[in-house]
What does this fold into?
Amino acid sequence: MIDVTVVILDGTFSSTAVGPMEVFRHTGTLWNDFAGKAPTPRFRVTTASVNGRPVECDGPLYIRPMASLAAIRKTDLIFLPSTGPSLNDIVERNGEVVPWLRRWSKRGAAIASVCTGVGLVAATGLLDGKRATTHWGVAPEFRRQFPKVKWMPEVMVTEDRGFYCGGGVNASLDLSLYLVERYCGHEVAMQTAKALLIETPRAWQAGFGIVPLKTEHSDEAISGAQEWLHKNFHKNFALEAPARAVGMSMRNFVRRFKEATGDAPLIYLQKLRVAAAKRLLESDHRGVQEISEAVGYQDVAFFRTIFERHTGASPSAYRRRFGKVA
It folds into this structure.
C-alpha cells in the first residue's frame, strides 16, 4: 500500500485536491467493483493542512482535512494542489509547508505538485537543476524567481528524480493518473481512467501527447539530446541530427547516450515513438496508418513491427484492449 498525503493549501483550487484524492482512493477498487472482482486498493490517502483545521478554498468552499502536517508519520508520496496565481501570496499563506517538504524529501518521499503549487516546491530549492512544468501563465514569473529550475511549461507532466509536476488545473488529473501508472503499472492506470471516465493522460499543454522525459543521470549534454528527441521524434531525421545538436561526434554520442540512458539512441527513439503511438491508440480514433505517420514512421508495416517488438501486441490489438469505446 502506497501512503499518499494530499496537502490542502490555503486558497487552494478545490478540484486540484479533491480530483487527485479520488483518483488515488479509487485505484484498484472502482474498476474491480464494476468487473465483479475483489477490490485491491493501492493507495492509502491522508489529507492534511498546516494546522489540521478546515481550509478555505478559492471560492465559497471549505475542506476539512484529516490531519495536520505535524501529525503525518508516514508518507511515500506528497501531492500539492494549485492555489492562487501570486507566488508571494502562496508562500506567505503556506510558508510552513516549505520546511515540511524539505524534511520529507530527505526521508525519501516523492513530491508531486500542480500548477501554482509547483511554486511552493520551487521555493524549497529542491527543484534546482531539475525539470519542472507549471501553468503557462505563471511560468515567466517562476522563471524569474527560480532561474535554476529547468522550466518546461510546454509539457503537461514532468518527472525528474522523485519530483513530479503538472501544468494547469486540469493537469491535476493527468498528473494523478501518471502517478498511478508510475506506481501501479499501465494497465491499472487505464482501468482507473476508464472507471472514472477520465481522458487518458496528456503530457503536452499544446500539441502532441507523449510520455514525460525521465532523467536518472547527470550528463547534461545527453539530457539536451533527450529533449531534442522529445521535441522532434515525429519528424524524419538521421541520428546524426541530435548528435550535432549537442556538439558531439556520432561515435561519442552513441557511447555517452548508452551510458546515460541504458539504451542506444535508436532504441530510445523507438521507445519514444511507441510511447506516443500508445497514447494515440488509447485516446484517438485515427487509423493505424495515420498514427504511424504522426509518430515518425512513414512505413506502416515497419511501424507495426517496431510497435509489437516493444509492446508484445499489434497496434490494433493494443487499441482493442486499451482504446476508447467507439
